[in-house]
Every structure is written in C-alpha cells, then in structure tokens.
Amino acid sequence: MTGNKTVATKADVGAFLASVEPPDKQADAIRLDTLFRDVTGFKPVMWGPSIIGYGRYHYRYKSGREGDFLATGFSPRAREFSIYIMPGYANFSDLLTRLGKHRIGKSCLYVKRLSDIDEAVLGELISAGLRDLAGHWDVHPV
Asked: Which of 11, 68, 7, 73 is CA-nearest to residue 40?
C-alpha cells in the first residue's frame, strides 16, 4: 500500500502566505488563516507545497489503509480558494445555503474571494466539520 501523497511538512506557513499572488488573494489568504486559527485553536502546518492545514487525524479503513491527514484547512489556488472540510460537505446544506457564492466538491469548497461569502458562516462550517470529523476519528493538534 502506498501512503498519502499530501503529507505535513516543515515549510514555513508565514513565508508561504507572503508568497501568495496577487496582493488581494494574499490578503484573503491571511484573513482565512486568522479565521481558521480562531475557529480551530490549532496552529497551522503546511501539507504538501500549497495546503495550510489545522489539526490532524489518523484514519484506518476496513481495507487496512491508514494514514494521517489534515483535519481542516485551505489552499489559495490560482483560480480560487480550496477550503477543506473533512469528511465532506454532505450534511451541511443549511450552512451552505447561507454561505454565499461558492461551489463544492466531495471535501472541497471553492470560493473565488472572501467578499463573495459570509465569513461568520464559514467559521460555523469549519466548526461543524471538525465536530463531524471527531465523530469518526480523533482530531489532534499537529
């Protein structure tokens, strides 16, 4: 069995945030970092080259596959922000209807800019996602 491609690194989160372009995306990324720190109480850690994660969980599936992954986090991708809520967004339709302009994948929420959404609702979503994840796996600071 192979391990996860995305793993925690020792890369500096502050340096990564300072490298985000353009300046308005960088400002949004810094605001997201503050929001995630406030909501989770976790110190951020880089996962791979471009994901900022908050907290960690260890999973073990019936198949025997196991590993560690970020509990929640985000990445300032070129077109939009990818916001990660584990194990996914299926049970959060009430929050998503109040969030604002976004689209979703299985465990990713895509937002072009923070001005498109209600940041307080995003905070509720992050918190709800952590509670849901903790119902499946133990969540720990990194």
From this structure: 73
Contact 57, 42 (CB under 8 A): no
| Secondary structure of residue 16 in the 3-state scheme | helix
At 128, list the tokens.
């709800």
DSSP 8: B
Mean confidence (pLDDT) of the chain: 91
Q: What is the per-residue pLDDT across 56-91, written as a single tens digit (0 to 9) for each?
A: 998 877 887 778 889 999 999 999 999 998 777 768
Q: Which residue has the tokens 């900022």?
A: 52
What global pTM score does this model have?
0.91
Sign of torsion over alpha carbons 111, 117, 122, 125: negative
Could you name the CATH architecture of 13-137? Alpha-Beta Complex (3.90)
